[in-house]
C-alpha cells in the first residue's frame, strides 16, 4: 500500500519507526506492506514513487530539520495540494490540531478524499469542527476516513465502543479524555497549587504548547464531540459542548471532595443529546477515577450495561500504533470488497 504522510513530527516519525521495526511481521501476519511514497513537513517534501528509504528520511529530518533535504535536487510540485497530486492509496494527516478553523487538516483531508484516497488522521481539529460533513464526503467518494488516534492516543476507545459493542446501543458515556488535566488534578490532590502543577506538566512535556487548550477543556470537548458522532450517531461539533475547564478548581475544593471519598476530575459526558466537559466530583471507587495521565471512559449501553476502558491517552508511539491499526483495518476492508 502506498502512503503519503503530511506532518512528520512526533507521531509521524514514530509511525515511520514502527513500520521499519515491524515490516516483516506486518506483511506475514496482516498482509500489509506499507510504502511511504511522499512525506511533507512545513519546510519541504520528500517524494519517491517506489517508496522512501525510511532510515534515511528519519536521519535527514533529524539532522536537517526537514524532510525537504531527502532529494538534494529538491522536488518540484505543482501549485495546489500535495494531498491531491501524489499517487497513493492512503493519506496520513498528522499535522497539528487547530480547533479554530481545522486547518491545514481539513483542506488536506478534503483534497485527499476528493481524489479518491483513504485518509487516516490523528488530528482532532477537522473532526471536532466538521465531523458530519467529512463523513458524508468520505461516503460520497467511496473512501474510508479513520481516526482512532484522535481519542485516547493508543487506547482503542473508539474501536472498543464501535466494534466490541456492535449490535448494542450506546445510550451515554462519561470519562476522562485529557491526560494533562488529569495529571494536574492528580498533582493538586498531592498538594501542589494549580500553577505549580501546570508548570510540572509543562516541564515533563505533557502539556500542549498552548496550555489553555487542555486546562480550559477544549481538547476534552473536541474528543467528546468525536466520540458522540462516531459511536452515538450525533451530529455535533465542539461548539455544542457545554465546557468548563479546571482553572477554577481550588485545593480547598479537592480537600472537601477527598473528605467525601471523592476526587475532582475533568469529566466529559454525552447523554440525552447533551454534551459537556466539566470538573466533577467522582467517587474513588468509580473505575473512571484514574490518576496521572491515564484516560478512562465508561460506556453505558442498552443491553450490556456499563463497560469501562482505561489506558494511556497520548504518546508518539502509542498514537502511531493507532494509525497502524487503522491502516490494517483499511487494508482488510479493501480486500473484503
Ligand atoms: N503526540 C501525541 O501524543 C499525540 C496524541 C494524539 C493525537 N495527537 C495529534 O497528532 C497530530 C500530530 O501530533 P505531533 O505530536 O506529531 O505534532 P508535532 O510533533 O508538532 O508534528 C506536527 C508535524 O506537522 C507538520 N506541519 C505543521 N503544519 C504543516 C503544514 N501546513 N503542512 C505540512 N506539515 C505541517 C510539522 O512540520 P515541521 O516538522 O516542519 O514543524 C510537523 O512535522 C496533532 O494533531 C496532535 O493533536 C498527538
Summarize the structure in words.
By secondary structure, the protein is α/β, with parallel strands linked by helices. It folds into two domains: about 1-150 and about 315-335, Rossmann fold; about 155-310, Dihydrodipicolinate Reductase, domain 2, CATH 3.30.360.10. Helix content is about 40%, strand content about 20%. It contains 13 helices and twelve strands. The strands form two sheets. A six-stranded mixed sheet has the order 3-2-1-4-5-6, sandwiched between helices. A six-stranded mixed sheet has the order 8-10-9-7-11-12. Helix 5 runs parallel beside helix 6 (about 125-140) and helix 6 runs parallel beside helix 11. The two termini are about 15 Å apart. The model has no long low-confidence stretch (mean pLDDT about 95). Bound molecules: NADP nicotinamide-adenine-dinucleotide phosphate. NADP nicotinamide-adenine-dinucleotide phosphate binds near residues 7, 104, 122 and 319.
